[in-house]
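Exercise 7. Predict the joint structure of the components listed below.
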Amino acid sequence: QSVLTQPPSVSGAPGQRVTISCTGSSSNIGAGYDVHWYQQLPGTAPKLLIYENINRPSGVPDRFSGSKSGTSASLAITGLQAADEADYYCQSYDSSLSGAVFGGGTKLTVL
Amino acid sequence: EVQLVESGGGLVQPGGSLRLSCAASGFTFSSYWMHWVRQVPGKGLVWVSRINSDGSRTNYADSVKGRFTISRDNAKNTLYLQMNSLRVEDTAVYYCARVGIAAAGANWFDPWGQGTLVTVSS
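Solution:
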């Protein structure tokens, strides 16, 4: 299983708000390492959505926001749109593994 | 435009070898750490390996340590992944990815290549 834990799926109606959690441990998120989020649309490569916990790259709508506290982080998506249907992954760094670690991914369904 | 283009994937028998390449353009390749990440079709992302900007430091996931070798040629703006002793469980799409900024400690990935499929099967 993945080092970071995400819910396998979340869903929401258009216009609603959803959150995706990402739980780590004392060797990654809890050690102070930043959390980053990626969106993967079907059949495409992952795309950076949030970096360093809260920052959005240019071009990412402000409907997407990130937060981090303790050993966990969250991605919030407001004003859900059909185009947001995708898989979302959190990622951090793990000092005991000396490498990047990912969550198992969360499939977002817009009802 | 910043771009990463992988190549070299294909079908290989268990125990065989394959070398993946990742051609970089649109940025100063020699300034950035680079990573390989893989994804079994329908499954999640898994980090494989990383290399620092001058190629002097490398790290590997335990699952590939001793079998895979990451390297780079900064003169050719190209990242490599030499994969030996391949196993069925190495079957995946392999992505190369650049870290977000050319600074120590930057460990997010942006951009990613389009991926190349490696299939290990007899």
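Discussion. Residues 32 and 53 of chain B are 5 Å apart (CA to CA).
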